[in-house]
Design brief:
The complex is a heterodimer of chains A (182) and B (225). Chain A has 2 domains: 1-34; 40-174, no CATH class. In chain A, 37% of the residues lie in helices and 21% in strands. Chain A has helices spanning 3-33, 39-49, 135-138, 153-174, and strands at residues 62-63, 67-74, 80-90, 93-102, 105-111. Chain B is 75% helix and 2% strand. A two-stranded antiparallel ribbon of chain B has the order 1-2. Classes of the chains: A alpha+beta (182), B mainly alpha (225).
């Protein structure tokens, strides 16, 4: 074996050994510092409702025509259904909402991630209008169902689509569906 | 252990070879991460951690790493420690990590770290290399904090997040371009002060030299007798 080949093999072997040791070190640190990516959402659900959420019931979510459910979880006591829903067609893309149902009735809606710019034109109690809506009897939820003095029509459309996604998901999966109704 | 070398290594990175004000390395994080004192400090600490451990490991492996593959080896080692910093920050300081995410990853290509690995750690013992990492890290953190204090004060009228009454924020001073101006002014000030200090040292040395020579001659006379 020539000196050149030996030197090349030596170089590759040393590099491989260093990479292996570094990989093991990173593996150990990953084990020690791992953060469940779903945990912040569960924490948000708990903070908004006061109930305990320890497990995501549906991590995959479900897509509908103009909106989607990103995550769905049921509180440990079964009292709340919590949704992270997104509606498309906003000014800055998707608008995410945290929607909480007690039974089949919306109890609370909280704004999530979005890139909309006109929230200051909305009334401060804008999201309170959704409380009390029974999703099991509403069928669909449309833009016209949202009452507001604001002129941000694309934002309103995205919000309505996110709420509609919750209605659709509830109808498809929770009304006697796979998760059962509380 | 050579105490003189320890002292020289430790003070070298902070003053004589200050990475920001003298070597002018790592300018990208210096401008991007000095809008507030807290961010500047966090960036400095993260870089210091990577500097210390990458220097230490590279120094430990300096006789094993073949010359031809030394740069890839250094990059693998440096990126490992940068990833560890990212993991720890994401776990324990998620808010800070969100604001600094891009620049933490970019520590891998921070030329201060590669420069110290190549010019110091690869040819010095582990203890001195770790000490060099601490020293350069302190020099870098100190410089960032200094710039951060000035920029936060001018752009936000605050110190470490606490607003100072009577000092309103100056519009436009939060921009990166103004960061360069602050950086340049502080660099000039640092080098001016260092020149003055060095000139004073030289003057004292020159003044004390004849005395010392005189003493040597006197001792030689005593010895002759």
């Amino acid at each position: 074996m020539s000196a050149k080949v030996r030197s090349m093999i030596q170089g590759i072997a040393v590099l491989a050994c260093i990479a292996l040791v570094c990989g093991l070190l990173l593996g150990a640190f990953n084990y020690l510092t791992y953060v469940d990516p779903l945990q912040p959402t569960l924490d948000q659900f708990s903070a908004d409702t006061g109930a305990d959420f320890s497990q995501m019931t549906d991590e995959e979510g479900q897509s509908f025509e103009n909106g989607r459910i990103i995550y769905y979880a049921r509180s440990d006591g079964g009292e709340y259904h919590a949704f992270l829903a997104a509606g498309s067609g906003g000014w800055g893309g998707e608008v995410q909402l945290y929607v909480y149902l007690r039974g089949s009735v919306i109890e609370k809606v909280v704004l999530g991630d979005n890139a909309e710019t006109l929230w200051d034109t909305f009334e401060s109690d804008f999201f309170e209008q959704f409380a009390g809506i029974d999703v099991s009897s509403s069928g669909t939820f449309e833009e016209a169902d949202v009452s507001t003095g604001a002129t941000a029509s694309r934002t309103i459309r995205a919000v309505a689509r996110a709420i509609d996604a919750v209605v659709q998901y509830y109808t498809a999966n929770l009304t006697g569906g796979e998760h059962g109704q509380s | 252990m050579d105490r003189a070398k320890i002292k020289e290594t430790f003070l070298g990175g902070i003053i004589r070879n200050n990475p920001t004000f003298v070597l002018v390395l790592g300018t990208c994080p210096t401008i991007a991460m000095t809008t507030t004192l807290f961010q500047a400090f966090a960036m400095g600490v993260a870089t210091t951690f990577v500097l210390i451990f990458s220097n230490l490991f590279i120094s430990l492996l300096r006789n094993l790493i073949p010359d031809k593959v030394r740069i890839p080896c250094y990059i693998v080692i440096i990126s490992t420690f940068v990833t560890i910093v990212e993991m720890v920050m994401a776990r324990f300081m998620p808010d800070l990590y969100d604001t600094m995410r891009a620049f933490i990853s970019l520590i891998v290509v921070n030329c201060i770290i590669l420069a110290r690995a190549e010019s110091f750690a690869s040819c010095n013992k582990p203890l001195y290399s770790a000490l060099d990492g601490i020293s350069i890290g302190i020099g870098f953190t100190g410089a960032l904090c200094l710039i951060g204090i000035v920029r936060e004060f001018l752009a936000g009228g605050a110190f470490a997040g606490i607003s100072i009454p009577g000092f309103p924020a100056m519009s436009g001073t939060g921009a990166s371009a103004f960061g360069f101006i602050v950086f340049g002014c502080l660099m000039a000030l640092f080098n001016f002060v260092m020149q003055k200090v060095n000139a004073r040292k030289d003057k004292i040395k020159a003044a004390s030299l004849p005395l010392a020579e005189g003493k040597v001659e006197a001792w030689e006379e005593v010895a002759d007798r």
